[in-house]
Write a structure and sequence with these properties.
By secondary structure, the protein is mostly beta strands. It contains two helices and 23 strands.
């Protein structure tokens, strides 16, 4: 049965739902920082992306000469997670392979998401354990939507370490082989609704270990840690009061790719009985 788990310390309070291990609230004493769902606008707050990032050509992939179907961004957001640990400032959520996941993803895994508050920072750790003796193949990532009460164009993203970015252009959700160089002034990326109408921004191999998401007058400011993630996606749409900043270990599929998951661009390959772990964070500044 779906529950909402709360963790808190003297600075912050976070709420996570067991359905999809979705972070639905991050608040300090003054305000809410996460987008609050609206089915008429966007019905998520921060869906978990696993075991693929983005979509698949024709909605399918191939493993060991067998074809499987899977929806965009995978199935984790639709699954009920077990609460493995819950103390005042930390919660661990666990998703295991089962008969239903095996129908669309034939691998044995344990997928843990740990939320831990440290001062004004929320650490979010994704961990995949291969519980078989064979290799498994996956991607994962965050898809946090940050509230912009005044409108997204009143905000900017500062890349702490990059003077220019390479945008991998998408066509109907797939990488079309084209790239666009985006120069930055003082690391600042300004949010322009018109540009997002073209497609999601997808940046790969950036140098920044974190980005700052801030209102132009500084009234709301966050630092988002992305170290160890090979892709950063940024998404919003016109007249929306949120911006999604998405650290991924994976990437949108190349248009026309033949579907072999073992050769998918950006896929993580994990040996038998091994663990792959990455942490991103949200810090209130």
């Amino acid at each position: 049965m779906q529950r909402t788990i709360e963790i808190k310390n003297k600075d912050l309070c976070a709420k996570i739902e067991t359905l999809g291990a979705q972070l639905v609230s991050l608040k300090d004493e003054k305000e809410e920082y996460m987008w609050q769902r609206d089915e008429n606008v966007w019905g998520y707050c921060s869906p978990v992306v696993f075991p693929i990032c983005g979509g698949l050509n024709e909605g399918r992939y191939i493993f060991n000469n067998k074809e499987y179907s899977m929806m965009q961004h995978g199935f984790a957001r639709f699954k009920e997670f077990e609460v493995e640990k819950h103390i005042e400032d930390e919660a661990v959520f666990l998703l295991k392979a089962d008969s239903e996941t095996k129908k669309i993803y034939p691998f044995d895994f344990e997928f843990r998401i740990t939320f831990k508050l440290i001062g004004k920072k929320l650490d979010i750790t994704y961990s995949v354990k291969n519980i078989s003796n064979d290799k498994i193949y996956f991607s994962f990532g965050g898809h946090e939507g940050y509230a912009c009460p005044e409108g997204a164009e009143e905000y900017f993203i500062k890349f702490e370490g990059d003077a220019r970015l390479t945008r991998h252009m998408l066509e109907n959700g797939f990488f079309n082989g084209k790239c666009e160089e985006i120069p930055l002034e003082d690391g600042i990326f300004n949010i322009d609704y018109k540009e997002f109408e073209k497609c999601t921004y997808v940046f790969r191999n950036i140098n920044s270990k974190s980005v700052i998401f801030s209102h132009k007058d500084g009234r709301r400011k966050l630092r988002i840690g992305i170290n160890g993630h090979n892709t950063l996606a940024i998404w919003t749409l016109p007249s929306r009061n949120y911006v999604c900043i998405e650290p991924w270990c994976g990437v949108s599929e190349v248009k026309g790719f033949n579907g072999d998951i073992t050769k998918k661009d950006g896929i993580v390959v994990l040996d038998g009985n091994d663990v792959f772990e990455r942490c991103h964070f949200i810090e209130i500044l």
